[in-house]
Write a structure and sequence with these properties.
Elements (H helix, E strand, L loop, with lengths): L1 H29 L5 E4 L1 H7 L1 H38 L5 H26 L4 H28 L3 E4 L16 H12 L6 H19 L1 H54 L10 H74 L1
Parallel strand pairs: 1-2
Length: 349
Amino acid sequence: MIVEINFINVMRKHFLIAIIALTFSAAHAQGKGVKVGYIDMDYILEKAPEYAEAKNQLEQKAQVWKQEIEVKKTEITKLKENLNTEKVLLTKELISEREEAIAFLEKELLDYQQKRFGPNGDLMIQKATLIKPIQDQVFNTVQDIAERMKYDFVFDKSSDMTMLFAAQRFDLSDRVLRELTRAQKKDQLSKKQLKDQEKQDALDDMAAENPDQIERQKKIDEKKAAREKLLEERKLAAAEKKKAMEDRRQQLLEERKNKNKKKEDPKTEKSDDIVPFKTTDKKASDSTVTNKKAEADAKRKTAAEERQKLIDERKKVLDERRKKILEDREKAKKEKEDALKKKTEENKN
């Protein structure tokens, strides 16, 4: 049976290799390339939160079964020790009966071990039952990515298909994990957060497909941010200038209104020969104008300081946000490099 299964697996490999070779030949004849990617199912399952929970449940069951096996082993060991101790006092028939009973218990223990931990045992069956829904999610996600990004083939590195070398840029495992995580958190995220996540995923896909493209996009984003900042500064300067002109116009209107009011007020009308009173009114008017001008200057200065403070705060927030984005990108890049290094070492081993 095992030989037959191995033969089927070998034939399946050869058949798959033949199909791939024919596809490459046809693509070469038509003058177009074949787009190939791969995943590491074991890596994806280890990183998937649902797999960790299913694995924990399975380990708890396996622990219970192991305890039951240990109890049976202890019981058999105790029976053997008792038999060895009492052997000199027993007849051959009794000794034979006890040995048969011990042999029966040992066979029963072996059958129980096979039932729980054998190739077709409960552990393997329940493991397949728990993992299958997660594997189905992975397969569906891989199909979506392959159709969206027009891959011709996507292999599983952890399967029976032997891969002697695979470049990191063709590894879709992290991309599959991102989409699985996003699907799990879909109900918890707002529309804006989902949109931002999809935008970030698109950037990551673009970086994986073309590493130079992310640098170009980064420069474009920096130029766009600088242009928006310049436009904002010009807008603030124009608003400040407009406010200054409005304040000046308001001041002139107030001065004209006060002058007309004085002309119309009969109490302020004096004869031309009373010079001291005219001099006093002129000084009072000049003092009022000076005070209003000082107040207007103080207001403009305060408004300018507040605007400058607002500009500085916005600049600080933008700098912190840009710094955070760069740190996140560096962190993601380092994690990918570490993962690649780890996989390379594993392949060497």
